[in-house]
Design a protein that fits this description.
Blueprint: H1 15-28, E1 37-38, H2 41-48, H3 52-64, E2 68-70, E3 76-78, E4 128-129, H4 142-155, H5 170-183, E5 193-196, H6 199-209, E6 216-221, E7 223-224, H7 225-233, E8 237-244, E9 247-248, E10 260-263, H8 277-290, E11 293-297, H9 313-316, E12 322-327, E13 339-342, H10 348-358, H11 364-375, H12 378-405, E14 409-411, E15 418-422, H13 430-439, E16 442-443, E17 445-446, E18 452-453, E19 463-467, H14 473-494
Parallel strand pairs: 4-16, 6-8, 6-10, 10-11, 11-12
Antiparallel strand pairs: 1-3, 2-3, 5-13, 7-18, 8-9, 12-13, 14-15, 15-19, 17-19
Domain HTH gntR-type: 13-81
GO molecular function: DNA binding; DNA-binding transcription factor activity; L-aspartate:2-oxoglutarate aminotransferase activity; pyridoxal phosphate binding
InterPro entries: Aminotransferase_I/II_large, HTH_trans_reg/aminotransferase, PyrdxlP-dep_Trfase, PyrdxlP-dep_Trfase_major, Tscrpt_reg_HTH_GntR, WH-like_DNA-bd_sf, WH_DNA-bd_sf
Length: 506
């Protein structure tokens, strides 16, 4: 959660008092509801560029007056019983996030959180849209899928009318286990695999197996929005860990106590960095030494263009400390809503129980079709074709950015379905460029608009996410040229405040 607090140094009040009164007002007006978690003092101070001591003192005063309460490592929360009788939100009115009040007595309100961005911010799609994580619609093997679907439904019989195994179709779990052993070096039994409705569903399942509020969660910064928002909503004490060109900086992980590390090693989200083999081994050593566990989201591992992928953490793990997340949303189609998690062997039965409590399993027909698609070799063939297509589009995007902007700073180009482009030095804020580009029919996205989360805000101001997998090459060229014209116009508009240039040959 982020708090939009504004300070006036000429107001005649200390910053501490201003922070106290603004947070109290957010609580009294119902924008911060009972049970909602507040950001840690350190992170809030960083976001507001003020002293951490100022925020800590404001929190102390709010706590002393009964507005907030500390729950140890779980964090600081708005009190369930606020002292002022004026606590209210207009009936039927909208909260600060735009959601309407649920109309329940406050003791029943315990949830707080934000939805991750996985679809476009609005219904109107830009003419040329670099939306993130979207596969090329025409690449989906529609005719093959229809043929397999008709075959399965004709012999399905009672399987269509009965509940299946909540852990997933056994044949599909065997197929996934064989595929992982062959392509990712992850050798597991089918019993360790739980089929889910995508990686977010799998992450929810894993969190139900962990003691979330009572152990620190170490997460990459910047990171995948869906993970950060989920962990926060469950009361996790989040500790952002920096990433560089080799992925998460393992040396910055504390070694004093057990915790949970969430990583995206194959293609760090959003920067695209690949966690080196040396750091993978160091991360596993850290987990073993501290009795910690690792959640590995391997979402983009199928798309590696210039070199072979490094063996997954779960494939290198000898101590049963890695939970592995996989999904078919990027490699095949997000609309299928099929993913999976691999849990350590000793947690296979508890995971099956948790899954049965969450739901009664995924649709039999989709699982049956996917099973044959994998076992027949059609999935491998589909991946080869998709890799060729996406590599061509990646090459076109990089070449266009270099031609228009000279030595463009690009990260994450080795694999995946997107790159991160750092705006030219002195350029305006990424959110402004996103808005201006949209007016010219081009959809490019600042980090927080592209399913990423930056804890301190330092990275997001100059970084743009460009998903190229669903954009045709001719449109990529047109879009990048429009971006060049846009930044030239912005330079003229805001000169002499903006200082950046394009190569004269552009």
């Amino acid at each position: 959660m982020e708090l939009d607090l504004r300070f006036d140094k000429d107001a005649g009040q200390t910053l501490q008092t201003q922070a106290f009164e603004q947070i109290r007002n957010l609580i009294l007006k119902g924008f911060l509801r009972p049970g909602m978690i507040l950001p840690p003092t350190r992170l809030l101070a960083q976001q507001l560029s003020i002293s951490r001591n100022t925020i800590a003192l404001a929190y102390d005063r709010l706590s002393a007056e009964g507005y907030i309460e500390s729950r140890g490592r779980a964090g600081t929360f708005v009190s369930q019983s606020v002292p002022d009788e004026s606590l209210s939100a207009d009936a039927g009115g909208e909260t600060q996030s735009g959601a309407r009040g649920v109309g329940l007595p406050s003791p029943l309100l315990c949830f707080s959180g934000h939805p991750p961005v996985v679809s476009r911010p609005d219904a109107k799609q830009p003419l040329i849209d670099f939306w993130v994580g979207r596969s090329e619609p025409s690449s989906f093997p529609l005719e093959t899928w229809r043929r397999l679907l008709l075959r399965k439904i004709s012999v399905g019989g009672s399987k269509l009318t009965e509940y299946g195994d909540p852990a997933g179709l056994s044949e599909l779990r065997v197929a996934i286990a064989n595929h992982l052993a062959r392509t990712r070096g992850v050798v597991v039994s089918a019993e360790q695999i739980i089929v889910t409705s995508g990686s977010q569903d799998a992450l929810n399942l894993i969190c139900r197996l962990l003691d979330v509020p009572n152990h620190p969660f170490y997460i990459e910064n910047p990171c995948y929005q869906g993970a950060a928002f989920l962990f926060r909503s469950l009361g996790a004490n989040l500790h952002p860990i920096a990433v560089d060109q080799q992925g998460i900086v393992v040396d910055k992980l504390p070694r004093s106590h057990a915790g949970v590390a969430f990583v995206t090693p194959s293609h760090q989200y959003p920067t695209g960095a690949t966690l080196s083999l040396e750091r993978r081994l160091a991360l596993l050593e850290w987990a073993n030494e501290t009795n910690s566990v690792i959640i590995e989201d391997d979402y983009d591992s199928h798309f590696r263009y210039d070199s072979r992928p490094i063996t997954a953490l779960a494939g290198l793990d000898q101590d049963r400390r890695v939970f592995y997340l996989g999904t078919f949303s990027k490699s095949l189609a997000a609309g299928l809503r099929i993913g999976f998690t691999v849990v350590p062997h000793h947690l296979a039965q508890p995971a099956r129980i948790v899954k049965s409590q969450m739901n009664h399993g995924q649709a039999w027909l989709d699982q049956a079709v996917l099973t044959e698609f994998i076992e027949s070799g059609l999935y491998d063939r589909h991946l080869r074709r998709a890799r060729k297509l996406y590599k061509s589009r990646r090459d076109c995007l990089i070449e266009s950015l270099q031609q228009v902007f000279g030595n463009a700073e690009i990260s994450g180009a080795e694999g995946g379905l997107h790159v991160v482009w750092k705006l030219p030095h002195g350029c305006s804020d990424a959110a402004v460029v996103q808005q201006r580009a949209r007016l010219r029919g081009v959809g490019i996205y600042a980090l927080n608009s592209g399913a990423a989360h930056d804890f301190d805000g330092s990275a997001s101001r100059q970084m743009m996410v460009l998903g190229y997998s669903s954009v045709k090459e001719k449109d990529i060229v047109v879009a990048v040229n429009r971006l060049g014209e846009l930044l030239d116009d912005m330079r003229s508009e805001f000169a002499p405040y903006l200082v950046f240039s394009r190569p004269k040959s552009a």
